[in-house]
Description:
- The structure holds 3 protein chains of 3 kinds.
- By secondary structure, chain A is mainly α.
- Chain A is built from 10 helices and no strands.
- Chain A has helices at 8-12, 15-48, 52-67, 70-80, 90-115, 119-127, 132-147, 149-162, 175-186, 189-218.
- Chain A is elongated, with a radius of gyration of 21 Å.
- The termini of chain A are far apart.
- In chain A, 48% of the residues are buried.
- Chain B has 8 helices and no strands.
- Chain B starts with 7 loop residues before the first helix and ends with a helix.
- Chain C has a domain at 1-78 and 159-166 and 196-239: Rossmann fold.
- Chain C has 9 helices and 10 strands.
- By secondary structure, chain C is α/β, with parallel strands linked by helices.
- In chain C, helix 6 links the parallel strand 7 and strand 8 (188-192).
- The longest helix of chain C has 16 residues, at 169-184.
- In chain C, the strands form 2 sheets. In chain C, strands 6-7-8-3-9-10 form a 6-stranded mixed sheet, with helices on both faces.
- Chain C has helices at 40-47, 72-78, 94-104, 110-123, 139-151, 169-184, 196-202, 220-225, 230-239, and strands at 2-11, 14-24, 29-34, 55-60, 63-64, 79-82, 157-161, 188-192, 205-210, 213-218.
- The chains are: A mainly alpha, B mainly alpha, C alpha/beta.
- Chains in contact: A-B, A-C.
- The interface between A and C is medium-sized, with 20 and 28 residues.
- Chain B: InterPro entries: AA_ABC_transptr_permease_3TM (IPR010065), ArtM/GltK/GlnP/TcyL/YhdX-like (IPR043429), MetI-like (IPR000515), MetI-like_sf (IPR035906).
- Chain B: It comes from Pseudogemmobacter humi.
- Chain B: Its main location: membrane.
Amino acid sequence: MFNYNFRWNQAFNSLPQMLEGALVTIEIAVLSMMIGITVAITLTVFRLSGNRFLSAIATTWVEIARNTPALFQIYMVHFGLGGFGIHLSPYMSLLIGIAFNNAGYLAENFRGALKAIPDTQTRAARSLGMSSGQAFTNVVMPQMLRIAFLPMTNQMVWAILMTSLGAVVAMNTDLYGVTSELNARSFRTFELFAIAAVIFYLLTKAITLSARLLAARLFRY
Amino acid sequence: MFDTALTVNDLILLAKGAGMTLLVTAISVFFGTILGIVFGVVRYQIGPWWAAPMTFVLDIFRSIPLLIQLVLANAFLTAVLKLKMSGFAVACGVLSLYTAAYCAEIVRGGIESVPLTLRRAARSLGMSWGQDMRNIVLPLATRVALPSWIGLALGVMKDSALVYIVQVVELLKSTQILITRLQEPLFLLMICGMFYFVISFPIARFGGYLEKRWSND
Amino acid sequence: MIEIENVRKSFGPLEVLKGINLTVPRGEVLTVIGGSGSGKSTLLTCINGLEPIDSGKILVDGIEVHAKSTDLNKLRQKIGIVFQQWNAFPHLTVLENVMLAQVKVLKRSKAEAGAEAEKQLKHVGLGDKLSVYPSRLSGGQQQRMAIARALAMSPDYMLFDEVTSALDPQLVGEVLDTLRMLASEGMTMICVTHEMKFAREVSDRVAFFHKGVMAEIAPPEELFDAPKDPELRQFLAATH
């Protein structure tokens, strides 16, 4: 039917390199989520602080992250910061770009989650003598993270998919980068990217599944 | 205001890029939504078991980087099938299916949000399936689905930045071309970012407003 | 001793406390009755500083609650409060609910806090629910847990804000029994309540609030059997 010679063997020979790339992809996604969650919690506290300056910073961050393409954000980190004389490696640009995006979306998710937690929870904590900081970290935040767990899982899947955007900053060690380099040498575009697609698919399924298992362990209430 | 080497021709290039971004988005959202509604209704109608193969295929579009979808589709259509297809056509095709995959979920969620008792009431009044769908399900499901759909449409606009990979010169790509030539990354990126923001921000706010308003009653 | 001197408080244009004067000595059980909007619940939240006041002052053991120099977090350790909505922390087990503030605020060790929590939970009859999450408890049980949580901070005063109002009728009894037990143990208590029978039984004094004013205060026999204030008479007639 096709007069195209599929050369799967040749492509499969590259599998070890691609799997190594997949490890880098996972690493970037995990790190970007860790940074993203930490920053998102900070932005959430900024928004709750009542301080105009701090909440303006948080709002600006969230709106830029949500209203411009992730590709643009990574580009900005790499080439835009270059305008200030800050030159980051492709790895760092990609990591920071994804973390920036994660933080913005997660902060918005956290805000939604907070709406589901009644004010009386804070009131009860304060009435026991807890400071507002203690009430937030011990009473509000754990509930917030639980409510936002599903969106956090989705964002983790996004983070995995976003690593492919490293292409624009010449990132060549992650799964997408490795695949494109192999492609530049062998031109087996379809075969190579089909394998990459399957690996990406399995990665995202593994995340969804392990998140489900983790949730069952973490949230017993 | 800015000391820049940007010429009128460069601005035209950017404007063309912006036009391409909007065009690709409009086409993809249009066809993606139609397909998504069909998939969503079918999926709801035949039940999760029979719809499993379709669900599986649609899920693939949401589990693989869009960039790879574009590369694969392009390679398959032009190298494997040896079709003469423009990058623009490939971009619109892939983005439409990508949109449809998300839209189907939104549609299904919308239909499922309509209480079954309400639909039974409609049918017991003698309404046909079509009448029930049109007069009961459609207006109620729209309230649930529209805010998400607005988010999806804006998401597609932002994701359309990736079609540069199939040689479509949209806004971000045209910005990149100018950056390489003029070496003014910060200024040019700001213009590009502003464009996305100015379109996305107010529409996203409007979507949020609708969601808030409709969830109250 | 809790001393309330000429306290005024408004929410916007609505004045909910119009100059309240009241002294509650140690060991007293005071119940506060009155219609909704009478300001009785607001007074409780002012006593532990959850609400600011507009004028006047509230002294707890001589410390002015609303003075800027007062460490409210420290003061609140002396004053336990239980609300109409029990506010169990849903992500913590019953035992952890009662331990949390002890560990974070009183800096007790986990072992110490755990032992105290267990003691208080047994005291309110929840000794068999230690490792259960609050969502598995009935409203009455959650409310008793909230009482144990406040008691575990070893407070000198306990404030109860309509603690039975949100409960199903059949669960009211168990919570009132817990309050009776505390009263009999000599705890200083201010209870805002709609339970007249309970008020008559346990109180040393009963105060009647009406439209932001403390219209009458007297020992229960006197207040219930020979009410002087016309509004109180009407209120009592309506509740019987």
